[in-house]
Amino acid sequence: MSETTLNRRQLSDLISISAGMLRLKSIEGVCQTTAEAMVKHSVFARCVVSLLEPDDTFVRLGFGGLNAKEISALRDMPKSTLESMQDQLVKKFLIGRSYYMPHDQTDMQGLESSKKAKGRSKTDNQWHPDDFLFIPLYNPDNQIIGLISVDDPADGLRPTEEILLPLELFATQTAAVLENLRNVERQQEMYEQLRNQQMVVLELSTPVIQVWEKVLVLPLIGSVDSARAQQIMENVLVKISETSASVIIVDITGVPVIDTLVASHLIKTVSAARLLGTKTIITGINPEVAQTLVHLGVELSEIATRSNLARGIAAALEMTGKQIVDVD
After folding, report:
1. CA 82, 35, 100 angle in degrees (round to 5)?
2. Which of 26, 265, 274, 283 ranks highest by number of CB atoms within 10 Å?
3. Which domains does the chain have, with CATH numbers?
């Protein structure tokens, strides 16, 4: 089989694998698949795929053609830095888009090769067991995001551009898949940060305050949607459990609109508090709100109500056997 035919078949196989990697959900899975494909569909018997971390060090994530002992040894080795690798990946070693480093022109150290070195003259093109070959992984801005290191070619020869071209095209596809997964991870992190910030805002906007022994106050300000209503109920139930409160005052003076949704949430909160043995007083019901509740058919006959917070606190203290008295 000619080299051209072999490269076409090799390229076809690698493209098929890269298409399959689009279904993978983890960066580690893509790196491992890449390393195994490099070994299976190239002349190289060993492969390691490393990715650049935020701290500018390379972490080894994919291994092909290596046994457990060799993988363990690699993981125990110090991590290479981007700066140190850029010092090594220089133009004189460039073949295509890859870097081939003869052992006698670099001080890099790696795993001991499984093959013994053969004597060679200055004119031959034999691969030495201590030679290095790196295929960089680039992002769309042509920045290195990882490295594919291959070793122990079956033909025992130094690489050529023709041999490396299919592997470099495969590396380009791998880099695109990895960048896509990393973008997804970044979006998920941003979503989690936003969700956490929203939770903080909800907690700050639904404070449950203990104003007296066994008396709590929940001042509501602003609109109440489903998410905030759920947070209100959770905060109320947690605070009741922590304080063994007998009464909770829900002040709705600052709620601009009372509609069916808000009324339903209020009733659910009152019912949940009652299950824990806590009575509820709703304050801040002005004439307009009262009319709205009547038109909506909201039943508040079993719930104590007061016109303002001051009267609500006075009623709560009475419920707990206390009262407010004037002091001369």
Report:
1. 55
2. 283
3. 3-110+122-189 (3.30.450.40), 206-319 (3.30.750.24)
